[in-house]
Amino acid sequence: MKKIILTLSLVICALLVIWGCTKSSNNNETTTQTKTSTSNATTETTAKAETTDNDTTNVADTSVQANNMDVDGLSTEKVVWGPGRAENHQQPTDPVMLNSQYKNLGARFILDDKKSICLTFDEGYENGFTPAILDTLKEKNVKAIFFVTYDFAKDNPKLIKRMIDEGHIVGNHTYRHYTMDEVDTATAKEEIMFLHNFIKKNFNYEMTLFRFPKGEFSQSTLALAKDLGYKSVFWSFAYADWDTQNQSDEKTALNEITKYLHPGEIMLLHAVSKTNASILGNVIDEAQKQGYKFTTNV
């Protein structure tokens, strides 16, 4: 009997041990599942937080706007000015608007609404026609502004001296004809001052008028020119006369120029054009016939 009782006791103990182990195992699984669930929830929350942060950053991103401003708060965004056109000999609206917009930065796109014309020539290089242009201006007793590059001035000192001696204005058209808003500030300053100092040293002449290559500028580069003592002179009329291999015939060019005459016009002509040199006298005659006077007062 004792053996039977002992045997039953051992069986009961074994069953209790097995039941206890099974309980512990279930608890561990539950704990593991809870930890895994918590970990997943944390990961999802973190992912959602990162997504929210990224979305917020993108929405509030002002880096583009900041990059378009210089240290003085002026825009560095490129502005391109091309040929102006006047209807019925009235002042074109675009240069009038630009005058108002950029006058505080020393820019001039058109003169006052009076029967006057400012005749300007761009001189990137000499193509053999500047002497004829000067001859015509002397004959007609008209003064003009010649915007010259360093290469032109260096290679044609006699023409620079003649311009000055005959009462014309020599203006700055840069050292290397770089696009001013596409170079750094130091290089842009060099584009103006290298030629300025060259002309002052070799001709004892102080330039005060500047013309941007290709008419491309920004608020920042306008301010730079002004800080260096320059007024920036653009134009209210120009036409496609710079391509020496694709010149308009004289009749077409004369009509193109004179049909757009308007009060306060700043006329841009390129001195490399043979056609311009040939018709300049007729342009002056027609303008004066229409009641215009020529001025270099910008």
Brief characterization of the structure:
α4 packs parallel to α10 and α9 crosses α10. The strands form 3 sheets. Strands 3, 4, 5, 9 and 10 form a 5-stranded parallel sheet that branches.
Task: Write a structural description.
- This protein is 51% helix and 12% strand.
- The protein has helices at 2-59, 63-67, 93-102, 130-140, 150-155, 157-165, 185-203, 219-227, 250-258, 274-289, and strands spanning 79-80, 107-108, 116-123, 145-148, 169-172, 209-210, 216-217, 231-233, 265-270, 293-294.
- Strands 3, 4, 5, 9 and 10 form a five-stranded parallel β-sheet that branches. The protein has a three-stranded parallel β-sheet with strand order 2-8-6. A two-stranded antiparallel sheet has the order 1-7.
- Helix 4 runs parallel beside helix 10 and helix 9 (250-258) crosses helix 10.
- The radius of gyration is 39 Å and the shape is globular.
Spell out the blueprint of helices and strands:
Layout: H1 2-59, H2 63-67, E1 79-80, H3 93-102, E2 107-108, E3 116-123, H4 130-140, E4 145-148, H5 150-155, H6 157-165, E5 169-172, H7 185-203, E6 209-210, E7 216-217, H8 219-227, E8 231-233, H9 250-258, E9 265-270, H10 274-289, E10 293-294
Parallel strand pairs: 2-8, 3-4, 3-9, 3-10, 4-5, 6-8
Antiparallel strand pairs: 1-7
Helix pairs in contact: 4-10, 9-10
* Record field, number of beta strands: 10
Number of helices: 10
Cα Rg: 39 Å
Globally, the shape reads globular
Residue stretches low in confidence (pLDDT < 50, at least 5 long) are 1-66
Biggest sheet descriptor: 5 strands, parallel
Mean of residue pLDDT values? 83
Helix amount: 40-55%
The ordered string of helix (H) and strand (E) elements is: HHEHEEHEHHEHEEHEHEHE
What is the terminal separation in angstroms?
Answer: 132 Å
> What class, by secondary structure content?
alpha/beta
Strand content range: 5-15%
